[in-house]
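In the current project phase, the collection of sequences with tokenised folds has grown. One resulting record follows, to show the layout:
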Amino acid sequence: MLPSFCSSGRIPLAQKRKITRRNSFASEAELNLAEIIGINAAQNLMTRFGTLEALAQSSIPRLCQNGQLTGKKARTLKAAFALAKLLSPRDSAPVVINNAVQAAAVLRAHFESLHLEHVRVLLLDPHNQLLQNLLVASGSVDRVCVSPQTLFRVALQFNAASLIVAHNHPSGNPSPTEADLKLAERINNAGNIIGIRCQDFLIFSSRHRARASDYVSFLDQGIMPNQ
């Protein structure tokens, strides 16, 4: 989450550096968001919506709820998202993920050389076509906190039929910890209740270069709960 500052508008370089140092979750995209609508508004909206992708899907009335944005700033933000969509590359074919190897191919670049733990989620439609690849949490060098509620709230927002959860171990050892096993079980149990299946839980090493050994798939290892 971006820190709160009293000023709004363009961010001085010194403040940008403070944001980056103090908040590993403050990506370049989120800093650009603060450039458009101001630091306080960016902080409030990221807290409320969780991801830039969810923010981009929101309507102008939702953006203006609780007085977080004026109508003018909301329209400016929607125009920026629309322009970014026009400029983004368009794949000729949908990405289909049927196994851990395909999931790892989509996720690998997002975890390389990270010094902090991140959690990402792949949201899939009923045909295993990729809907979204989202960063949902960022933590410290040896832990990250994410709740099943956060994951499935995003999944419901994008009408996902199933999901794949992944995170990294900056230590370089992708072997699951006891905390990883418990989290996978909680996510699986929540998915059974909601009706959105968690297909796999992947852990990446942020250091290994050999693709055959840079991640562990709970499903392939036979440790995915209730599979």
